[in-house]
Amino acid sequence: MTHPVKAAVFGTGSWGTAFAMVLADAGCDVTLWARRAEVAEAVNTTRTNPDYLPGIELPASVRATTDAAEALRGADFAVLVVPSQTLRANLADWAPHLEPQTVLVSLMKGVELGTAKRMSEVIEDVTQVSADRIAVVSGPNLAKEIAERRPAAAVVACQDESVARRLQAACHTPYFRPYTSTDVVGCELGGAVKNVIGLAVGIADGMGLGDNTKGSLITRGLAETIRLGVAMGADPLTFSGLAGLGDLVATCSSPLSRNHTFGTNLGRGMTLQETIAVTKQTAEGVKSCESVLDLARRHGVEMPLTETVVGIVHEGKPPMVAVKELMSRSAKAERH
Fold first, then answer.
1. Start and end of every Glycerol-3-phosphate dehydrogenase NAD-dependent C-terminal domain (predicted)?
2. Is pLDDT at 255 greater than 90 in this prediction?
């Protein structure tokens, strides 16, 4: 008799909790690692995560602990879903408990400040495991909709296609449809840059600029993402798929998107500090826009939209001034 697949999910925010549900619905035994004892207690006693997904009942095969060693014991997959800028420090604590067969899975959509490393590179750096044991999951995956078991699709990517297929099987449910890929770079970049474009679209929405503006920003944002991706060795076709266009459209059009909501508040005239104060969860693009711009400069790629977002978010540039500057850039051919 084959044993059920064991998964440890590190992070009890809305996406970590929702993905734990997906894994459980796909037949895995899931242990959620929580930083706070009261969260683990709530999951184990009430079958809910009241802080992040109130009112949603978790499957019986999801249990929680604050003990990383316990969570990782016998795990086939260790799913990492913490704010991207905290990954390095957290993973250093968890790495000693990793077992040799465990595949590390990143659900994080960010780029590390300072090093400009993608999350899979940070994982490799900290744990010293080979790249064929590191996978990423990306796509149009707004946590609340998935927790409500509404249909969604995603890409699971790993350099080793057989590992991607194992992960695909471990998270395939009637409502969650994963596709495999070997383009880890493209999947990660699509996820990280779309948060920055989500901020730009949110700012434009907050300013009341309309749907033509939104369509233009999404399209030019995708062009920027592809330019950077190609310079970094990604497959350009990845960006027309779920981890590229799919994720970008969901983020730029949904009030459930944290980055879009954050941008909308800035566009309405709130300051950065005011916006941070009303935002309950991490909007990854706020920090990642700086590291994405750093990546672009390292690779000699022009990313004017990303520069504009950095100007508004971190340099205090008024959104109206930034839009004027963006619109007055020299005209060029679309394929430029």
1. 183-323
2. no
